[in-house]
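As the next step, I needed to go through one protein, both as residues and as discrete backbone shape codes, included below for the reader:
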Amino acid sequence: MKTKMIVVGLGHAWREHYSKVLHKVDELELIGTVDPAFTSTEVMQGGTHGHFHVQTVGEIPSDFVSAEVMVMVLTPDHYDVLAELAHMGFRNILCEKPLVSRVAEIPEVERLVASGVKLYAMDFYLPKTLGLQVVKGLVTEDDPRYPWLRISEQADFKGMLGEVEGVGVQIVEAGKFCLPDLAGRPYLATDKEIGGMILDLITHACGPLQQAGLLDDWRVLDASLARLNENTTGHLVPVRQVAEVEMYATALLEAGEIPVSLSFGKVPISKGGLWSLQVRGKNGVYYAGLRTGQPSVLIGNDGHVVTFSLTLSTYEFVLREALLYFHGMLSGFDGNLGAFKTSMEVGQAILGKYWERISK
């Protein structure tokens, strides 16, 4: 029997990504949509077909409200929507990153979870590091996600990498991912409450590390923040006032007695960008591209190479993993909530370290 799904928010993420892979997930049936920006006719003309389309969550027909229905939240701001859905009786909710936009909302989300709501925090960077979890021995052949990974050959992956001695993550969004993106989402550069790169990108940077067990006993040693001098255009200048919105951040962490280097944000450079994760071990190096479809690579110091590549898109991965989670088929998996919470804590510590440094 198919799992019924409702989508709240039919913006860019739905139109450009999830709507295009939904047909590949036979286990899902779209029954309705919610978005005040579109009429029912416009939704149908756009190719999305369910049993209903309404303007607000409160208008969802009672016949379709059920604890078994899966709800995907793709709105710009999330907590109020999550709370309303939970109050109505929905219990399986997957939500686009960031799960919440305000630190004060994190305890509220924890209360929702404690009340019986299953939340899945969506982040399409996390599937790209499934290979790293295999290398670390955290995902094994009995995991239902293991077949989603194509591995060039079997080997002693943990032995090839060896003891981890350093980690680096770079998410440098240039070209169309900077100024053109900000033109479409100006709040990222202008709204201190729900904007900034700490909120927008920190789960991309830290979520994969948390899931791979590479952020144990962490602390922030140093941090820097920069902003655009003209809000949504111009060049990078140091952040000097608390009200200014950071567009680029760097941080040096110590985690488990090894260095972890982070750099992430939007840079006003006309082309290109860098999205990568590197884990240097005593016996080899693991490298993953975090945005493109290129495979992850484990290279031993002896030149031995093993590649890891997904057999499905990251968006299909998200839908399928959420289904497994909601159906209780992923033992020990928390719906990415730990990755989200740790990432937010690191982000707040980066802000705190920066203001501590420049106030001296």
